[in-house]
Specification:
Oligomer: single chain
Radius of gyration: 28 Å
Structural class: alpha+beta
Length: 176
């Protein structure tokens, strides 16, 4: 049985490390029986089940719990790890945010300066849009101010956003 646990750990642990470093499970996107099976039971779930089964089997074998008890406990823990992994990632896929903010939605937004903006130098502004904080490079409109720098924390109005750069003007503090 030790050979089985070693094999499971040797197969599962490198796959887990690969999934951690690569950022995902790209298997199961194709058609056919293999693609369907991997969509139902992704490779990352199989890897975590194999790794936990093997490691638990080896550890329980070291403390001499008996072959039947070791196998049953290792299998149960492997299945539990697979179910938890699958459930956690299913929840994350369901709750994925798809709120994308485009440049047109930012025009007219009120923000605040986070890096000073002046007529000759770009700065940075923070805008709350679509339920998220958006940071944009910003330039002051040439006709809006008398060349005075927009200091950190100053309220600004975004007039337009073009190519990711916001054109901003000072906003009267009474309007915020």
């Amino acid at each position: 049985m030790t050979t089985l646990y070693l094999f499971a750990a040797a197969a599962g642990v490198p796959l887990l490390v690969w999934f951690l470093l690569s950022g995902g499970d790209e298997a199961g996107e194709g058609d056919g029986i293999g693609g369907v099976m991997l969509r139902l039971l992704p490779l990352s779930t199989l890897a975590i089940a194999s790794a936990t089964f093997g490691i638990c089997g080896l550890l329980l074998g070291l403390i001499d719990t008996g072959p039947t008890m070791t196998f049953v406990a290792a299998a149960a823990i492997g299945v539990l790890a697979a179910v938890l992994n699958s459930s956690a990632f299913a929840y994350l896929r369901r709750s994925e945010s798809s709120a994308a903010v485009n440049e047109g939605q930012l025009a007219g937004a009120v923000g605040r300066v986070v890096v000073p903006v002046s007529a000759g130098h770009r700065g940075r502004v923070a805008i709350s849009a679509g339920g998220q904080q958006v940071y944009l490079s910003a330039c002051a409109l040439p006709y809006a101010d008398d060349g005075e720098e927009l200091e950190v924390g100053a309220p600004v109005l975004v007039v337009e956003v073009r190519d990711g750069i916001a054109s901003v003007t000072r906003l009267d503090p009474e309007l915020t």
